[in-house]
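Blackboard transcription, Thursday session:
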Amino acid sequence: MVTVRLATPLRKFSDGKPEIKVTGSTIREVIENIDRAKPGFKERVLENNEIKQFINIFHNNEDVRFKQGLDTRVEEDDVISILPAVSGG
Amino acid sequence: MNLNEIKRYSRQLILPDFGTKEQGRLKRARVAVTGAGGLGCPISTYLTLAGVGEIHIIDFDRVELSNLNRQFLYTPADAGRQKAEVAAKRLAEINPEIKVEGITEKITYDNAFELLKGYDAIVDGTDNFAVRYAVNDAAVVNRVPLFHGAALMYEGRAMSIIPRETACFRCVFPEPPPAGMIPTCREAGILGSVVGIVGAIQASEAIRYLAGLEIGLKNRLLIINADEMRFEKVRIARSSDCTACGERFVPKPVEEVCAVAEEVEE
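(Written on the board underneath:)
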């Protein structure tokens, strides 16, 4: 299981919790598994199978855009953070 | 430095890496604070207290009672008055050794590049994507270091942008959430102390940078979850495809929409 941390605007997919445990061996699988439990998640985060432009995904604190993107492999106890841009001030 | 200044800044002058040379750099600095709201109040207050020589506070809004849970430079008697003016006056009272100017102007993609020229730093406390991308692009094109911060509910973000050296806001989030996806425009809520944390972090970064000291949020995005009081720093990097700081600048105005990302609206 990997830990997925969801930024505030996405927490309706985790029943308000800041993090959830999910199975999967790539970022893509993890997103699909969350979507299976909470339909609509994938659509919220991906567009044409790419990470949306206003969303960023970090794998163990590294931006996955500079790794293998959605195909980045994840292992037991890894931490994935999914962050949409926020603009409040 | 005069005697008043030596007394006023004595507690920071005794810091091991901070002395009269660093204080002098702050005094000579000219800084723009974009937004005089929840972030703008702590940002501008700490820059004022630290002795940044010239501070311009840019905001077009007027004070409302609903600002007062977080915007501590205003009192109920200020309701209806221009924030930039009220904030500048109060800050000048707090530190008469510096120059504070209020600029009542709405920042747009059209005027940002001219408005935000010639500063030693910009500290961004605006509250919507349209202005944030305008400020980012203007800072990067004008090569003015930008100290970014944002907040939503109990979550805060901060990053320090040194143009052409470190990732800019657009490198991390190339586009804002699309306007059409936002069904209504209403606030998701914010606690004053949370914007206080974020604004204080932005000010700390700006002050250390202006003083010539090392800073901690270059190529790093700090994510603060004040509900768990968890602070995380993630690694970010410049993107060669970035339309603001990449190989070629491409102007990309962002349509003005609500301050709240679409996900909050449900």
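Lecturer's comment: Residues 192-210 of chain B form the longest helix (19 residues).
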